[in-house]
Each structure stands twice: as structure tokens, then as C-alpha cells.
Design a protein that fits this description.
Shape: globular
Structural class: alpha+beta
Strand content: 15-25%
Helix content: 25-40%
Number of helices: 8
Strand order of the largest sheet: 2-1-10-5-6
Radius of gyration: 21 Å
């Protein structure tokens, strides 16, 4: 009986070790998961991944390119492949948007049409970098410089790095290459989720006041890449619900100043909030109203 127990526990821990190892591998960017968003309430963690496919980047056909990298602010030699080559692995459905998931819990949504065409041919997924004439599979940190500040939180990378030359994004304002871009904060790509855009965005609607509905639009344009509500959305920045509800932490006027003027030269104590110089006081009021209504509210399910 003892031998049987020993064999059982030995087998159990071997299987458990393999399972945990697989989880670790999936989260370091050596593989990328692709799936469709299933029905459920993602705010409380009830969503499911449908048609899950795991792509092993070691088996992906690669090319070598010298590319301008906006995070490093210089041209770099990379080995990897374009986003369109990765999207070719997943069968098309009714979804019209993809969401790129990164290890630091940032999210970047892209219209599927643009992801397959414009961004599919400009977004490069690097698996190696050439520094000092030597090919390396580890990437240096990105410590984003700006004409007004130095980001205090460097972005780190693991087994892959997404490379873009410009901060342009279809849902944001990229004015004179100086203001916020979601591409600035991304780390290592670990997932690509397929969603119906309207249904995805409807999850954030509280529907209580006109101002809060307008506030959701501000959130989706400016905030969704780093912030979310509990389990719904990105988890890189402050959770709208806490630990201190954001509407209590920052009143509309304070919120306006925090987004428009988050830091200046010599101030390295900010948490990393990017500058959005065209943010208005009216937007701050609408956004704050949505923050208040979304707090302690059960948001909508994804169909």
C-alpha cells in the first residue's frame, strides 16, 4: 500500500510540475494564446476562453529586420515575424476586434480589419535582438524618455517584444508624437483575444446618466489600455473600484490635473501616468461620473 501511495504522489507531483511549468511557459511569451471571448461576467472572473489555440513561437517562421522601435527610440536589428503571420493561425468568426494581452496586464484593442492589414504589416513580434553584433534572446528594459519627463517605471520584456515605429493607434489622439500612446506601456505579448467590439465595450456601460455614458467613451479612448474595473479590462494601472474607489481618490478637478499634467522635469515620484495634454475639464467631469457609477456596480455580461 505504501508503494502504491508513493507511486501515486510521485506521479501527482510530476504531473503538477509539468502543469505549473506549462503555465509559466505560457506567461513568458515563448508561446502566445489565441481565443474567442466566451459569454460571462468578466468583472467577477466568470468569463471563458473559447476555441483556445496556443502558438509556439519557436516553430514560427522568422525574418530579420532593422526596425525603428518607439519604445527604445532608435533603430534596432530584430528577428521575428509580423502580426499578420500570427493572426493567420486563428480561424475567422463574427468578431471584429482583437485585444492584445501583455505580461504587465496592459491591453491594446485593434479593429480586426486594421490588425490584418495596416497594423498586421507594421506590428512586428521580435524573438531576438542584435546588440553589439551578437544575437540575444533577452531584451533591454525600456525607460521611456519624454520632452517633459522620464517615466519612473521601466517596461521589462521576456521571450518576445512587440515592435512599432509610431505611437499611432486608431482609438487615440497621437498629436505630434508627444502625447499618450498605448504602445508605450506594452511589455511581452502573451495573448490575442477575439471579441465583438460593440459587445465588449457595452460591458463597461452603467446606463444611469447621460454624463456617465459619455464618460465610458472617454474611458475607452484614453484609459482602457491600462485600467479596468475589477476583472474586466486592463490591470496595469489603478483599479476603478479600489483599493480606494477612484472617484473618491480623485475629484474631477484633481483628475483633470493628474491626466493633463502628471509630472514635470525633476519629479520622479509619479506612478507612471502618461501625459495627455489635450484632456479637457469636461472630459474629467464625465469620466469621474462614470467612475462613481461603476464603483460597486455589477457591470454587464459579455454575450
Amino acid at each position: 500500500m505504501t508503494k502504491i501511495h508513493n507511486l501515486f504522489f510521485r506521479t501527482f507531483f510530476i504531473v503538477l510540475g509539468i502543469h505549473l511549468s506549462a503555465i509559466a511557459i505560457a506567461q513568458d511569451g515563448s508561446t502566445i494564446e489565441m481565443w474567442r471571448r466566451g459569454p460571462g461576467n468578466y468583472q467577477v472572473g466568470q468569463g471563458k476562453k473559447l476555441d483556445l489555440k496556443v502558438v509556439d513561437l519557436a516553430k514560427q517562421k522568422k525574418t530579420q529586420k532593422k526596425l525603428l522601435d518607439m519604445q527604445y527610440e532608435r533603430s534596432v536589428n530584430y528577428e521575428g515575424f509580423y502580426l499578420k503571420d500570427l493572426l493567420a493561425h486563428f480561424p475567422k468568426g463574427r468578431e471584429d476586434q482583437i485585444i492584445l494581452h501583455f505580461t504587465n496586464k496592459t491591453l491594446i484593442p485593434l479593429p480586426l480589419r486594421d490588425a490584418e492589414k495596416q497594423f498586421g504589416q507594421t506590428v512586428f513580434i521580435a524573438t531576438r535582438i542584435k546588440e553589439d553584433k551578437i544575437w540575444e534572446d533577452s531584451f533591454p528594459k525600456s525607460r521611456k524618455m519624454h520632452h517633459m519627463y522620464l517615466t519612473p517605471l521601466p517596461i521589462t520584456f521576456e521571450k518576445n517584444k512587440v515592435v512599432v515605429a509610431s505611437g499611432a493607434h486608431p482609438y487615440t489622439d497621437w498629436e505630434a508624437k508627444k502625447d499618450f500612446s498605448p504602445w508605450q506601456s506594452m511589455s511581452t505579448l502573451v495573448g490575442i483575444e477575439y471579441v465583438v467590439r460593440e459587445a465588449y465595450e457595452d460591458q463597461f456601460i452603467t446606463g444611469k446618466t447621460t454624463e456617465s455614458i459619455e464618460g465610458v467613451k472617454v474611458f475607452l479612448k484614453r484609459c482602457q489600455y491600462c485600467h479596468g474595473v475589477d476583472g474586466l479590462g486592463a490591470q496595469f494601472g489603478w483599479n476603478i473600484n479600489g483599493p480606494i474607489p477612484l472617484y473618491k481618490k480623485r475629484q474631477p478637478g484633481d483628475l483633470f490635473l493628474h491626466v493633463k499634467y502628471p509630472k514635470y522635469k525633476g519629479n520622479y515620484f509619479d506612478s507612471g501616468m502618461p501625459v495627455q495634454r489635450n484632456f479637457t475639464e469636461r472630459e474629467a467631469e464625465k469620466l469621474w461620473m462614470w467612475f462613481k457609477e461603476a464603483t460597486n456596480t455589477k457591470l454587464r455580461n459579455y454575450p
